[in-house]
Amino acid sequence: MSTPAKKTVTNARKKATAPPTYANYIQGAWVASKNGEVFANHNPADTRDIVGYFPHSTAEDIEAAVAAAAEAYPRWRLVPPPKRAEYIFRVGEILIRDKEAISHDMTREMGKVLKETRGDTQEAIDMAYFVAGEGRRLYGQTTTSELANKFAMTVRDAIGVCGLITPWNFPIAIPSWKILPAILCGNTVVIKPAEDTPLSVYRFVKAFEEAGLPPGVVNLVTGYGETAGAPLVTHPTIRLVSFTGSTQVGRIIATQAADKGKKCSLEMGGKNAIVVMDDANLELAVEGAVWGAFGTAGQRCTAASRLIVHKKVIKKFTQMLVERTQALRVGPGLDPASEVGPVVNQDQLERVLHYIDIGRTRDKAKLLCGGTRLTEGDLAHGYFIAPTVFGDVAPQSVIAQEEIFGPVTAIIPCQDFEDAITIANGVGYGLSAAIYTSDINRAFQAMRDLETGICYVNAPTIGAEVHLPFGGIKGTGNGHREGGVQAFEIFSEWKTLYVDFSGRLQKAQITD
Ligand code: UN1
Fold this sequence. Notes:
Number of domains: 2
Strand order of the largest sheet: 14-15-16-13-12-18-19
Structural class: alpha/beta
Bound molecules: 2-aminohexanedioic acid
């Protein structure tokens, strides 16, 4: 008699703790993918932990989401921007209320430590308040006309339905950089988040629902790049594609968007350098280098993966850096003692270990610390890599040229300031750079000569704030900036308006 009762309890408990199945959000309703298939979202700190199951969406789901966004567009376009901003402000309030829970979920699905996922959520909150404020600005120009009794001005116009594809390293911050300015400008959107971090965007979209955003303005479709991302990029109704991710995928998207005549904004790789001059505060430079290189386990487009150090201080700097790096506590992001979490998935683990191998063998760089996967105890169930420092790295070697996107950094010696700038600029990317120096003239020369979209003085390469433009040159981007009012350049078109109140035909440029 007791056995079946026990069984029932076990089953019930099992059911209560089974990972939840999530849905897409289309036209203001939560719906399964049309094929009914789901994929599992694993915790990278312990892959036995399944965070949830998410719709394995395909072109059919994209079709439905784009149709919903297209239907919502004509009405949303006519909602005054200050009113659109009120929804966005409410989203910010909801994110503040739920910050802890969102950040906790984010660490569980992405891996980075709780302090950093709180920062990620905070960045979306900052963005919500910043963009909401802009609802009462969205400034255009009024200007003169060359003709009498004629008025000239510019206004921002919406574009239409936007397809947004976001990465896993900033699971809510980067979606906020795209969704919020897009909808403030009067567009409607379909977002396809990275398959590693759909829960954070699910929670974000929940906030839009709770804020009362009209159905169809924000639509969420989860799935993989090839099956859900690709049909979004090529869908004829999509007027603009905004993508953050790998350079390889970004180039494909750029080609497809060009072919179909769509607007396209790309935020891709980086190979960011910190220059440490002989007059730098070394203590500060080491602290900045550790945070820049190993924050988010190095999985930032802005990560400091090169440390270009003046020959006079390189010995001391190296010793201090290695000591600090070895002391970093690597472990699950939910453990408050951890300072560096796992990398996000198996592919990323293999990619980073592969680069470490290249550094050791092909590049013949000196492995100073780290260099291995960590597998003691429960770490064996996750994707942990010991923070890795290479020394004596040649500027042209593979690990000093290619983006690794993991907890690996390369110390490159330099002779002097000019040499440092040449090395810093000698890569195919141009996102972020930093210089540590106490010489104000050097600082300004560096700001002038470093070929990047973002440049820091006496601070690491990471830590961008949402009200300033974010983005890079060369292989990093295609000329756009996210963040700041510059983001509105992506998500709106300028419309130029002339009003002739002369009551007669006036001809510009025609003199006779
Ligand atoms: C990224 O590097 O992938 O600047 C985004 C920072 C963050 C955003 C980084 N605010 O470090």
